[in-house]
Each structure stands twice: as C-alpha cells, then as structure tokens.
Amino acid sequence: MFYHTLNMASHKKLMLISLRVIRRLFVFVIVFDLLIPNIQGFDGIERRRSQFQNEFGYVVTPLPFILPGVGTGIGLLSGLNNVFETPIDLYLVFIRGDVEGSVLAVTDIHLLPENLLLDLTSVSFNKGQQNRYLKRGMDSAQDEFNIAELSDSRLRGGRLILTFYERMLEFYSVVYHLNFKISAIRDNEGNLTNEIDNPATLDSITTTYGTLVDYTDDRSDPKKGVRFFMERNNSPPANDGGVNFYVMNYSLTGYVPVLKYSSLALNYFRSDAHVISRGIIDPEILKLEFGCSEASIGLCKSSLQEVVQDQISQNTYGSAESLGGRSRLRSYVGSRFKGAHSEFIGSELRWNLTNENTPFDIWIMKDLRTGIQLAFFYEVGTVADFRENLWQQSRYSTGVGARLVTGSGFIYRFDVAYGDEGAATTLFVDYPWGTL
Questions:
Q1: CATH number of the domain bearing residue 253
Q2: In-domain check, residue 355
Q3: Which of 349, 342, 304, 298 is nearest to 324 (CA)?
Q4: How far apart are CA 108 and CA 82, in angstroms?
Q5: Left, alpha or beta for 191 (phi > 0: left; psi -120 to 50: alpha)?
Q6: In sequence order, which residues have a C-beta less than 8 Å from that of residue 217 and are 6 or more positions away?
Q7: How far is CA 186 from CA 3, 202, 299, in A?
Q8: What one-character-per-residue DSSP string does 168-184 give?
C-alpha cells in the first residue's frame, strides 16, 4: 500500500511538472507568435538555400588545447566536408598530452536521399581526467572538486535521422555504447587521494529519442524563425548498484532579424531527470566501491567522503543536463553545475560583418566563406535537485565571440565569456544551442 501511494504521488508530481513545462513553453511560443508576424520578412519563412550542401571543404590544422578540468596537450584536427560532392562529412582527431586518444566521425550518410540519414561516431581515449565537483546545486565553491583519472575509455554509436520538408521536421534516435575505468582520484591540486587497483569497467548503453521542429530560414546559420526540440535520454545504470533514470530535455530558440544581415537569438532550455529506480545509497558500500576500506592507508579522507555523498545524491535523484562548458554558461568549466533539474535562458546578438559567397583555399583549409560574424551574449542558468528550488540561486555568463560561417556547414566559433569565477574561452565548431 505504501509503495502504491508513493508511486501515485510520483506520477502526480510528474504530471504537475509536465504541466508547468507545457505552460511555460506555450507562453514562450505565444510571445514569438505575436512578435514574429510584426517583423518585416517573417511571413512565409523559406530556406535561404538547399539544406543538403555538396560544396567541398576541408581543414587540417594543429589543435593545441588548455581546458580546465581536462588538462593540456596538442591535437591534430582533420575534416572533410561533402566528400566527393556528396553530403557526407568525415572528421578525424588525434590528441596527445594529459588526454590521449582519437575521434572518428562520419556524418550525413544518406540511406534514403534527403529523408533518412545516418551518423557514426567512434571515440577512444587511453588516458584522461575529469573534474568532479563534490557538491551538487549552485552554491559549490570553485575549488570544491576532485579529479577522476580515466583510462580505457571507449564510445561507439550513431544517430539515425528521419527528416522532411528541407529538414524542418525531424525525428531522431541516438545509441551510444560507453565503457571506461576510474583508475584514481586526486584532489583539486593534483595530489593522489585514492588509487584504485584493478578498477572495474563501467559499461552502459544510452539511447536518445527526439523530435526537432526547425521553422527557420537556414538550419546551420538561421537569421529568422523558431526552432524547438524535445528529447528523452535514457540512462540505465552502469553497474548493479547504479541509479536507473531518464532525462527529458526541451529547447526553444527564436531568431529575430536585426540590422541588415544580423540576428538576435533567444534560447530557453529545460532539463529534468526522472528516476525509475534508485541506486545504492549506503555510504559504506559506496566507500568499498571507490576502493576505501578500514585496511586502507591514507585513502579514507574527507575528499572521498564528499565523493561518496555526491554519489548518494546521484543515486537518489539522477542528473539532468549540467550547466557550464561550450554551450550553456560558457564562463564555467564543463559540467560545473549539476542537479536533478536545470533551466537556462540565453541571448546572443549575431552581428554579421559580411554577407557573401567567397571561395577561399589556404594550405590548412578550403571552403566557401558565407559570412564573418561578431557575437555579444548574455546567459543565466540554475540547477537544483528539487524543482521548486530552481532560481533560488543562479549564475550568469556574458561575453563576445567571433565566427566564420562557411558554405559547407561549418561554423567556426571562438568565444570569450566572463562570470563570477573569471573568464573562459571556447574554440569549437557549431553555434551554442546548435544542431550538432
């Protein structure tokens, strides 16, 4: 009877959350519905160009990196866009340094021309590390983290896309098989606190199902219109004691044309974790899993205790999409803020200095330049384990960026963002809140 009552309460809470999401998204859509028809050029949105490009482009360039929480090193990036005048793109990256491995991706394989597409990805890292913040929510300090050393990390998978109307409507499915080992834990200064002998391999298969409505004038470089996606990410437990949960993500972005060739982008993002079954929450069992026992010497330190407490919260509530990194709250390191719920609002003025179709061919890059862009952005976000605690605390990022927009579909992005923990830079391909 108790479990039945608990289950009914959970369903009721889930329904209330869903109604809040629908209501907020409905208001957001209504605002854009009222705003857009009054802006010149918004009636009857059509694509500015074909969404299946065959303009050949390539890039081969060194890729030095300094990433907080990841380390430093050098890589070699090579990419071929629209190989043999087809929509197929090929990417290959080799990395050496604090992180060592390779990435291979083949995208836009047309199983049915312009309707059924396939992307394939393979990632292999022999060495790496990741910051693991010891406190969930928004009030953790900048130096409250441990460093998890990773080894034998492998990811294999792909994405299947069913698309219609010049990619204005899409249904997609993503499947990834991930396995890795945590070989050691260090404190925020790099001192060893826990070395794990014969670490177990953590193995999981994640699946994502989603829908994208892209009513804009261009998929890769929109200047007007509305884009909405909704997806469900299934996260089965990586081991017998892990939490089984899924995450619902919602994103709505509006593009308002300003000046002659420019646009104002506004984004609302929401993510919620829903637990199917809890994982292990006994701290003594979790200590053993992290290699800590009464016989251990120097391993059962407070830092490990905090890691265990974080794992208890994870196994109780699950984790929604985190904030921080290359797309949302760009002044913070990746996965800086995490919780069972997250919400984000961002704005970005994309000022196009040019509007052109100029071929260029230099020794490291060949493509068709369609625009040079400056960007000015402001964004704010919040996370919490309980939905009602969202926006009790929040963090912001503001900054500027420069972009090179190409005919082959690449958007080369360089951003400098500032927040209350200082500045951070991003060098990446694709817009924030983009389609990759």
A1: 2.40.160.50
A2: yes
A3: 342
A4: 9
A5: beta
A6: 45, 46, 47, 48, 223, 224, 225
A7: 40, 19, 11
A8: TEEEEEEEEEEEEEEEE
Q: Which residue has the tokens 């859509």?
A: 29
Q: Is the pLDDT of residue 199 over 80?
A: no
Asked if 397 contacts 345 with a C-beta cutoff of 8 angstroms, the reply is: no
Whose tokens are 């963002």? That residue is: 417
- Give 331's contacts (C-beta < 8 A, 6+ positions apart): 397, 398, 399, 417, 418, 419, 421, 422, 423, 424
Q: Is residue 1 part of a domain?
A: no
For residue 325, the cross-strand partners are none
Give percent helix, percent strand, percent coil of the chain, each to the nearest 5. 15, 55, 30
CB 429 within 8 A of CB 57: no
Helix, strand, or coil (residue 315): helix
Residues in Cβ contact with 177 at an 8 Å cutoff, skipping those fewer than 6 apart: 154, 155, 156, 157, 203, 204, 205
- Report which DSSP code applies to 108: E
Structural domains in the chain (count): 1
Residue 34 covered by a domain: no
- Domain containing 206 equals 39-429
> Which residues lie closer than 8 Å to 413 by C-beta, 6 or more apart?
401, 402, 403, 426, 427, 428, 429, 430, 431, 432
| pLDDT tens digits along 393-419 | 999 999 999 988 876 667 778 899 999
Residue 3 falls within a domain, yes or no? no
Joined tokens for residue 243 = 């939490």
Closest CA to 162 of 179, 174, 150: 174
Q: Where are the beta strands (DSSP E) in 142-200?
A: 145-164, 169-186, 192-195
Residue 10 parent element (H or E): helix 2-35
- pLDDT of res. 398: 97
Spell 106-127 as b/e; 16+ CB within 10 A means b.
Answer: bbbbeeeeeeebebebebebeb
Confidence of residue 156 (pLDDT cuts 50, 70, 90): very high
Please state, in angstroms and as integers, the Cα–Cα distance from residue 377 to each residue in 69, 271, 297, 396, following that order: 24, 21, 49, 11
